Structures are given as C-alpha cells and as structure tokens.
Give the backbone structure.
Amino acid sequence: MYPKVKVFLHSFLIIVIAISCQSKDTFSWNAGFSAPKHYGATGPFVEYFYQGQSIAGASSGVGINPGWEITSGGYVGGDKYKTVPDSIAVKWICGVDRYSYEGGSKLPRNKMLELFKTKAIDSYGNRQEYSLIVAGMAPGGNVTIWMQGGTGSTEICKFKTENKGVWKENDTEYNKYITEHRTISEAFKESSFFWKIHGIPYSVWEKGEKEYDYDIGFSSEEEYKFALTFYTKDGSLFQVDNKSSFLPWKYRFVSYPKNSDHLSKKKKLPVQIHIQWYSQDESRWFNGDIIMPQNLEKKINSSQFDRMIISIEKDTQDKVIGDIYLVNKSKQDKIMSFQLGVYNESLKKLMAPEYSLPKGFVFPKWEGREHLEFPELDYWQEK
C-alpha cells in the first residue's frame, strides 16, 4: 500500500473514532459573558458545571461593557466538545456602584439540549450551530443566560446573585486610584452622561425589555451618508446605515415597502440615538446624540405604528434640524425634533451642543450608591 494512502486511511480512522465516541449530548461550544453598554462589569467570571464537575468557564481581568447580549472576549477554558451544563456560577464587580456580586443557578438543561439539536435561527432566517453559552451580568446582581449561534440568540433563564458588599471599600490606595481614574477617563465621562440622562433601570434587567415589530428608515433632502447607533434601556445597541434603510425624500411617507433585511425583525425601543450625517466626499460632518421622548413606549402601544423615520431636510452652515416620525400606512406622527452640529476640523469641536432633548424631558433621580458630581451637560432642547 502506498504511504500516502496509508496516511489518509489512518487520519480517516481517527476522525471516524472521534465522531463515534462523541456523546449525543456533547456539542462544540464555548463560555462567554456580556454586560450592558455604560453599565459594565469588572473582572467577570463564569463557570459551567455538569453533575458537580466543572466543564467550561471564562474570565477577564478588566472591565467589559460591549452591550447587553453582545459577547465579550476573555480567557476561555474547557474542551472543544462538551456536555450541556446543568448549573452555573458567576461573579463580577458592578461598574456603576462597585458592589461585588456572586452566585449561581440551576440551568434548564433539557431545553438547552433541544436547542443545540434544532440549531439557532439567525437574522436572515438561516440555521446556525449554537456555539456559545453567554452570561450577562448587570447592575443589581441581575444575570441573564443566552445561547448564541452566529447572529441567532435565545434567552435561557434569568436569576439574581448575592451582593457581597463594596469591592475594596476600605482600601485607601484603591479608592485613590478610582478617584483619579474617573477624573481623566473619557469613557467614564461618557458613561456618567448616560447615567445622568437615563438613570439606572434596575428592573429592566430583572424583568426583561419588550420588543416591537418595526423597521427604521432614514431620509434627507440632500443624499448625504449616515450612520446611526441605537441604545436601548437595558444597554443593548444596534446600528443602521445608508446601505439598508435610506428612503428618498419625496417618497419617505408615500412609498411603504417593509425593509427586507434584519432591520425589520423585532427589536427593543431606543432611549438614545447617536447619529453621524456626512457629505459624499466626507468634507462636512454633522454629529449628535438624540435623547428619545420618555413616553415613546406609550405612543407605540397606543397606536399601530410600525416604522420609525429619522429625517434631515438639508445642510446649513453650522447646524441642521431634523425630525423623528412614527409611521404606518395611513399616517405619520412627528414625535420630536433634534439638532446636529457640524464638526469644525480647525477648531476640533462641534458647532452646536452634542445632545438634543425632547420637550418635557425630566432627568431621572440618581439611584446609585455613591453621590456623583455629574459633568455639565451641554444640550439643545426642543421648545
């Protein structure tokens, strides 16, 4: 027998033996973790067990806040093919209040086995192998577990962990470091703005956030490019650009086909939208953050709106005014206006306030453990 043939047969035999030895409840998956955007987790650790034996885990020595349900990387341990776990242990330090949380829970193993066998359905309706079991860690000690495959994600369960007290509360050096870090950190400044505007919605991580069947359109009289990032109450985020959701100005209300891709699936409502609007040659940039009306969910629930349209009429010297509508086949309801400032390259600044607030906006009461001196918020508010 030729040597190459012998090598091939030997390799083939090893593969066949490996497949035959794989248990029917053993799958290729890894452990992951997640935390809400602007409500991060420091030093996250997760470990999965089956019948009291550790089978997989993940940890990180730094803080994470990739967005709720979005998986963050870190050190991952465990074999490639693993049995489905029956329990979990987690611990982390909350990035908002520095409380240390630790605990665990039983997992619905039969449900997870069935999901591994039937596979995940991604954003485009295709089936993908589940490859991750993700632990989301949120303020208040709230944990959510998901199974994920490609862009498909299925919630498995929720549970609460025990508050172990303030991390290094009496450590003088550590407290000094935290104070100095907050003074110079742009990331902390951005998060503290978010807290000032939206507070800490503890209950949303405990109960979950409702999703709605609506799509998103963007329209402008001048066909500038655009990019939108939508932030939801629970710290999730999703993005939209001109490739999938642009509506010609004169047809923004008249023509009404549903967007065909992932933007038309069910999604949470935004509480804040970051927008960039820029000319085709990228010589002029307008930026800003739009704070959505606090009664948006009530408006959606009381009507049959199934599209949100963000519109900007035309370019001006230093700023532009835009509008947001809720739309259906028969009517459109303008819910707010917003302002964007042009970015001045020579001055390295926006020529208008970064934040736009709707009429009647009320800043929430701060519920965090520590009294924070929030930085001054420069904003434009609709009259």
